[in-house]
């Protein structure tokens, strides 16, 4: 007999359904508490192909499953949606298998499955998925903080009809529960209004009350019968209002916004006060703030990162419930309320209108007002695409965790490349100094040298400044400037320059102008130390973990992915994930564009001679070189 599931033996799990179930297959394989042992399907070709690809058997009936299966994810439409999912889940429970089932379920189906799970001594859970998405989790945390301070005065919500159950789950979590609720019937659309709109009325409006809070609900009440997900006009939107302001989940995938209440006091003459000051402190608040710690994701990032993370959280909760072994029916009060309210709502709305619209044309923000103008370049320089510091400010707090190992090699290589520096010729310019990991090594190696360190990202610059201020000797001779490389006003005289991880941010014209401008201010033969990524042409880069580090109880992972975004340019997406044990507790994303360029091309563009650092640095830091003014242009080694 095999040991029971536990820390040393993951739950042997099958996944039923391989359409949307693809997410569950990946999530089960990635989760340490589960191990995938099979696919359960009707035996279709795609399911067999998925099973073969994953190296597990494909079973066509519950009775065919081996005895040792512990858990199942049922990703098949339930009876209320016209599918066999509920019947399948209950058959698995009778076999002694714990079940996680995809939404939605009729409340009677749910209650029957929970009672069966209680009788069988197993767990049954429903996954509504969307409350586990990162932006919704952030909204729910903020809603809990808001409720603890002020009474909720209203809720305004919107959803497509086919994901109404997850919306109600989100509302219940945001308000601390759903009971009691009361729903009115949808507002009728007057015929003259429908006629004026060419017969179109895609959105239905109804009013209600949830947990004593007035609710306004708008539902996109149309479905494409063969492609419901691709034709929703919008996704979940929720606004929670109090006397202090309005908290809004603008979309299922963010952003999360806070808009403080506009309130202007009156002076002794009963005139409105328009300036912040004593008694009018609220006027100093920004009219709107985002609670997100990273830019909104791209749609492909939703599918590649945000949703897999959400399914991982659902599996963690499922595993925790199995480990705790509690009464599944007693623990499901919230779910029972969600699907009871969903049944009430769907009965009032009636069947959705079936539509078959043409394939939509999504628009980017820049399409609305025309192409965004590029930032004004410095005289003689080419324009650049990203704002100064783009890609580095959001994840600045983690930078040292990821870059420490690399700069432990880069710093000595830079110092070796600067050998023979004449500090009397002027300051050394460190462009894009980041958090100062290399700057400090340069300063220690050349104690008589004045240094000017530039860093445009405010978060990185704050760490750089703090690192230098810790030591009186560095604070006395290192100046920090906020300008980006293409914005620099160069000093008249320099003794050397360092540009590590900088030049790929500039297009060719700006790169060449900057390097020639530096060379013109250096003594003959003085070094310009450059480091690039080694990407000489755009490539597709799948998400790759670059670093992993531990700090106290938390583990940090640095991931990067990239895609071509032009003939010689890539978009690079960075993600920092913070784990407490195996639980993901934070995720910070950012991106920037990088012009792919090698050291030889930099030499050609600038007309400077390229030299390699001495051994062993040439091997340890292969994409670092030294550019020097020479009698002739070219490349030397």
Automatic annotation (TrEMBL):
Residue span, Gfo/Idh/MocA-like oxidoreductase N-terminal domain: 12-127
Any one GO MF annotation of this record: methyltransferase activity
Residue ranges constituting the Methyltransferase domain according to the UniProt record: 429-525
Domain of life from the UniProt record: Bacteria
Membrane-traversing stretches: none
Domain Thiazolinyl imine reductase-like C-terminal: 154-258
Compositional bias per record (Low complexity), positions renumbered to this chain: 381-391
Positions of region (Disordered): 367-397
SUPFAM superfamilies: NAD(P)-binding Rossmann-fold domains (SSF51735), S-adenosyl-L-methionine-dependent methyltransferases (SSF53335)
Stored InterPro entries: Gfo/Idh/MocA-like_OxRdtase_N, Gfo/Idh/MocA_Oxidoreductases, Irp3-like_C, Methyltransf_25, NAD(P)-bd_dom_sf, SAM-dependent_MTases_sf, Thiazolinyl_imide_reductase
UniProt-listed NCBIfam families: thiaz-red (TIGR01761)
Name the record gives this protein: Thiazolinyl imide reductase
Species: Streptomyces zhaozhouensis
